[in-house]
Amino acid sequence: MTALLDIAGLSVNFPAGGGLLDALIPGRKRYIDILDGISLSLKSGETLGLVGESGSGKTTLARAILGLSPISAGTITFNGAELRTRQSFTNMRRSSAMMFQDPVASLSPRMSVGALLTEPFIIHGVAMQNRKVKAEELLSRVGLSKDMASRYPHELSGGQARRVGVARALALHPKLVIADEPTAGLDVSVQGEILNLMTELKTVMGLSYMIITHNLAMVRHVSDRIAVMYLGRLIEVGPTREVFKMPLHPYAKSLIASEPQPDPRKRRADLAIKGEIPSVLNRPRGCEFHTRCSIAQDRCRSEAPELQAIGIDRIVRCHFA
Amino acid sequence: MSEALLRVENLSIGYDAGIGQIQALRAANLEAHGGEVIGIVGESGCGKSTLAAALINLLAPNAHVNSGAIYYKGADILTMDKESQRHLRGPEIAMVFQDPMTTFNPVITMGDQLVDFQHHIEGVSNTEKRRRAGELLARVGIPDPELCLRRYPHELSGGMRQRASIAAALLMTPNVLVADEPTTALDVTMEAQIIHLLRELRTDYQGAIIVVTHHLGVVAELCDRVYVMYAGQVVEQGLVDDIYHAPKHPYTRALIACDPAHFEEHTPILPTITGRVPSLLHPPVGCSFADRCDLAISRCREMAPPWVRISETQFALCHEARP
């Protein structure tokens, strides 16, 4: 299998707010690294789970891939072509789709479901014979009835709005779908329905998914590989099953251990992780996780670990892996 | 068991919706004793938030109490006059809301707000109230309470704000603490820390904690007893271990089976509950879960299910439930 998406050394930084002097004196302007040196690839037909706490840079990475956030270093290659110009990103967005986080808020409240579903065709100038027929076809693909086409987003339940989001993302037969928290805010039984639908459509339409989430229980069942991010860096990447079975990075370990278990007999007495994710404005020196790490040594406080390969398909950024 | 601190009896609440009344809560019963943590769990629209709002007397203006009562220390809080209700809210029954951002006023410092929350305490200086606020912030694990008191809400992270809102509720030394989805807006690492904090609090807190959540994991980690709600009714109640290991209501079983956290192994097709929750505008005569239940027979659709006693602590609202 060839890589559909290949990200190499990707960095995104934003200028830090400063005064007039900072803007005028060269070299004085400060930049905040939001993403730093991300290298990641996604094979055709694969589902990659991207996990981490809020503020770890997951959403920024998705936005950078789609050309919605300016890149400051590194390259993104999609389907064999490097993305650099505006035009190349526009072309790329024609064969990729984003499912945004909030299912209802990501649909325009003034447009009917039918109009929302056919909007991608108009944006990308793709011909369709009959708008109504097309909308109905898309609705039936995601298991909604035809008469939904005339409804407005506020008339939909969370699960229905999410299905519309799926239908809209798949309208142009994309190769890659980036789903940002596809199950956030949904009830547990509806979550399963949406994930099952996504899994089914993946097989039928030959999709590749990048699923951004902090719901570990969910990502465990839908993704082939997972990538764990912390403060804008990848800290561990590997096959889902292996990472869950034996996480190598202490952060991945504590993230997995933090997930509440739906079994009162498995209650934990201690806390897996203390403290909070530091601010990107105040990156800790050395290994960024040392402030919360239970095995941190002096070396971690001064020297930043490099990504190292473990076996054939796992990488981890830790001195003690 | 000792006399309940809080007892909800046969409570039914409906919302006026123009086209009729939505029966959001139907004949709910609940008991909370001092020193225990109770979980109210269910999916959206099951009535758990209506029940929580009723406990603290903050029902929406279009809500109608159709029947029932809520007894707190023997008195029905629903029939009290507004002034007595107001005195209960805070010092007796306090609430921690889901969104820690909207709990606080964005234009007043945390310190000033936490002092204001204590307005009902007489004969204590503001300096003393501020000192108490600082003490409680330290108690809920805020690293630098003095600094936090000087900050505005937006300067705190979500986890810190949720800790502060728990401190704000405890400041009033309530006998009942109602927490509505206290961890939903937080990351999993913060969630674990808030669960840990609430669990720690119960050791030195004599009152009852009532946690309302849709998250089965939170209930399993935190609660002693659980009430499972579906379509406005309490369908099962019991000790947390019985609910998770010997559930008697088909809905409880289905809900637990759907939770992806339940499976250790990679499961590409996750179980779901087929069908939809019935409309609460005209709730079904029989069992509300009948249309989605594998065990349903004609009786389930025709007759309201009985409240079956499984054991001294476990009950289920089901024709088919047996001890």
Number of domains of chain B: 2
Element-by-element helix/strand order of chain B: EEEHEEHEHHHHHEHEHEEHHHEE
Residue ranges of chain B: pLDDT <50 for 5 or more in a row? none
Output mean pLDDT of chain A. 90
> Could you state the order of secondary-structure elements of chain A as H and E?
EHEEHEEHEHHHEHEHEEHHHEE
DSSP summary, beta strand count of chain B = 12
Helix content of chain B: 25-40%
Q: How does the helix and strand content of chain A classify structurally? A: alpha/beta
Gyration radius of chain A, to the nearest Å?
21 Å
* CATH fold name of chain A: Rossmann fold
Task: Quote the distance from N terminus to C terminus of chain A.
Answer: 29 Å
Overall shape of chain A: globular
In the sheet with the most strands of chain B, the strands line up as 6-7-8-3-9-10-12-11
CATH homologous superfamily label of the largest domain in chain B: P-loop containing nucleotide triphosphate hydrolases
Largest sheet of chain A: 8 strands, mixed
Trace the largest sheet of chain A across and list its strands: 6-7-8-3-9-10-12-11
What is the helix fraction of residues of chain A, given as a range? Answer: 25-40%
